[in-house]
Amino acid sequence: MTDFLGLYFPEFFYVLCGLVCLDTAFRARKNTEAKTGTILFWTLTGLIFMLGKVLPSIVVGGMLVVMGCLTAAKQVKIGKFTESTPESRQAASERIGTKIFLPAVTVGVIALVLSFVKYNVEKDGVITKTALNGAIMTGVACVIALVLAFVICKPKVSETREDTSRLLMQVGAACLLPQLLGALGSVFSEAGVGEVISGMISSVVPKGNVVIGVIIYVLGMVIFTMIMGNAFAAFTVITAGIGVPFVIMQGGDPAIIGALGMTAGYCGTLMTPMAANFNIVPCAVLETKDTKWAVIKAQLPMALTMIVVHIILMLVLGF
Q1: Secondary structure class of 91 (helix, strand, coil)
Q2: Number of domains in the chain
Q3: What is the per-residue pLDDT across 204-250, written as a single tens digit (0 to 9) for each?
Q4: pTM: predicted TM-score of the whole model, two decimal places
Q5: I need a labelling partner for 209 at 20 to 30 A (CA). Which of 61, 149, 179, 305 fits?
Q6: Residue 162 belongs to some domain of the structure
């Protein structure tokens, strides 16, 4: 069979994401501030999710520029929503209890189960086993979790739409950062940034000094992840530019060095606002007083400790 699942089925879930964004744009009609900008932003976001695969790249790029300008000009605002009373929230809490956590757990469990599913794909006469696309695993898990949430909470559809729009408006443009930063990593890799970094480091640090090589590799992963907001995007660039020539080529075990290099990047994730889905979105959703730094401040001591731990483990286990 051709890779129908991998090529077309993920688009179904992107369309669902697009419909949610368009519904938020529709809800923005009730905004009292920046109504036009907010409607336009969420409309463009929905269209990119739904039609991104068929629209010319230059068109999508132009749409992103417009969205960036709207955000910079503060023309994307959260509207006013009717807040539920403390009494109603308390009653719902007592009625649902800890069952409220089941949908969230379901997302992880279903995605994990689906990660073991493989199917046959024929290419050039050769049949290979292929894992499901990540969008399929996550999308199916989220749909099942949504159905479970409806069964447990029994909300009105209108209330669900309203709360979904409120949550998406609270997060705002930060919801696009993971996708944009992931794409930026691919651009950096294609542009040969890793080779440039390697050349810069080699002019300062001589090859053969394993300890310094490991320290620079770990710190490079941390710092570049903080800049990119994405350890996956940083991994390709920093491993090619620093990890291979200054650590692996000096006798390091590629499997151990690569694994620890990736998790070292996560230390940077804990310390940067660029990792919006981890560090900014929770603050927006929970409406913390320090809307930008609350999560990062709480994670900072552990992140700094784990940087040192990664350096020690890489030196002990990797050689």
Answers
A1: helix
A2: 3
A3: 776 678 899 999 999 999 998 888 777 877 888 888 888 888 899 88
A4: 0.73
A5: 305
A6: no
